[in-house]
């Protein structure tokens, strides 16, 4: 068999793999691009969308929220396609590189065409490309590790999530300013430049990264053996519950932005744009990741052993609590008041704490619970929970829309609906978590002779 020019299995080492910095740089840049675009999407659709005649042709609030969640749902459905392309034909590296270029084209369309045709065309390309590369990149993190350094996996997935939120924090703060000051061409164009940077960064790391060989069609069939199907079924039950978390979480990029537009935007001595408060989430993530890892989790472990599923369960209750703040805000707005946008920051504290416990834990759980040949597939199933959550939110926003443009769930009742739905999900999840019996799978290392 011809020797590959790339490393095809992790080297025995107790140190951090050499390819990790390239993956983290790529992820931070790609997330800057994606979240920069998504942070201004709801504002663009309701304020800047143009018609083919050159006149404004904006959407109402409910249709815009529905389209935002359908787009997000599509993004997180496509990882299923990405897993097949990666595992059967191209491998993770080629899949990421090729579809990253499609990703860049999608940004170019958004930056140059501000009509509904340009919007949907650009979003279709971004949804396809972003979704396809997503399970490959997150699974590629775990591929870099063998049994000698698997103890670093938790730390690296934490840093992986940190890089996601570093890119997101910067872009969610600055891209709304770019849209407000310079318009959609710059607002979408700058994130597009960062997507190009992400593509180049990953390509530069090609000789440092571990390239796990593709399973091929035969290997794919062998992967879905009795054990594989059983594992997939058990994990699907877990991720079905996790999907409700994402139905609420992504409201912070749609409903919360529209709510912020009705509030007093003066806070901390400066004027905020409604979309800028989204940057609180990634900002808080970078604080809460180390806080949970080094303070909160060790303290809770001394009282009660924290398994991954227990973390997820606690996070679900925190998610429901986070929606009580926008409920209170809506009540104040209905009484003729105008509370400060700073109140949303308190909602983000609860929501971000829940994200640490649910989303980060689910990401690592999906990798460790997946048989070796199913890493990308199981990562895509975990991401499918985000798709299902956003599809649920989109359906709700479509159903509650009255013909005259008003909502069947006006004001606080909208947030009460999702808070109660999350609370019921969390309660039912308790016996399910007790039923699930974890089993870990970690990549094999190359032998000492092969690495010499």
Q: Count every helix, treating DSSP H or I runs of 4 or more residues as helices.
A: 16
What is the CATH superfamily? MFS general substrate transporter like domains
The top level CATH class name: Mainly Alpha
For the record, give the distance between the C-alpha atoms at the N and C termini, rounded to a whole number: 19 Å
Shape: globular
- Helix fraction, binned, reads over 70%
What gyration radius follows from the Cα positions, in whole Å? 22 Å
Give the helices and strands as they follow along the chain: HHHHHHHHHEEHHHHHHH
Low-confidence stretches: 448-452
Per CATH, what is the topology? Answer: Growth Hormone, Chain: A
Mean pLDDT: 89
Strand count, sense and closure of the main sheet? Answer: 2 strands, antiparallel
How much of the sequence is in beta strands? under 5%
Across the major sheet, the strand order is: 1-2
Class by alpha and beta content = mainly alpha
- Number of discrete domains: 1
CATH hierarchy: architecture: Up-down Bundle
Number of strands: 2
